[in-house]
Design a protein that fits this description.
- This protein is mostly helical.
- It contains 2 helices and no strands.
- Helix content is 96%, strand content 0%.
- The chain is rod-shaped and about 155 Å long.
- The chain starts with a helix and ends with a helix.
């Protein structure tokens, strides 16, 4: 019986050691889980901050694009008006040259012009 008791005591000691090892593994795993949860929370916070920043940048970009589009429209209208002014100026200059040419051919101005 003593031998059986010693064997049983050996099994018991081995079982206690295995249980202690499992408890230590569980504690280590709990620490790793805690660290992973903290990292997850940190990343989720960073994602929220970045999402808010992205939203602001997108709104700012949309405003700038709208302003640029308005400027493009104003520039196109201004250039078109300027081209009309140039065309009118060219027409006026041609008319003026023609009139001055006609005046040179009139007899009363020939004596005064030379």
């Amino acid at each position: 019986m003593t031998q059986q008791g010693a064997v049983l005591q050996g099994y018991n000691n081995e079982l206690v050691k295995c249980i202690e090892d499992l408890c230590m593994q569980k504690e280590e795993l709990n620490k790793q889980i805690q660290q992973a949860e903290e990292e997850k929370n940190k990343l989720q916070h960073e994602i929220q901050v970045l999402s808010e920043q992205l939203e602001c940048v997108c709104e700012n970009l949309a405003q700038k694009v709208a302003s640029r589009n308005e400027l493009d429209k104003i520039l196109a209208e201004t250039e078109a008006a300027y081209m009309k002014i140039l065309d009118s100026s060219r027409t006026l200059l041609n008319v003026l040259k023609k009139e001055v040419g006609n005046l040179k051919h009139t007899p009363e101005l020939k004596t005064n012009v030379t």
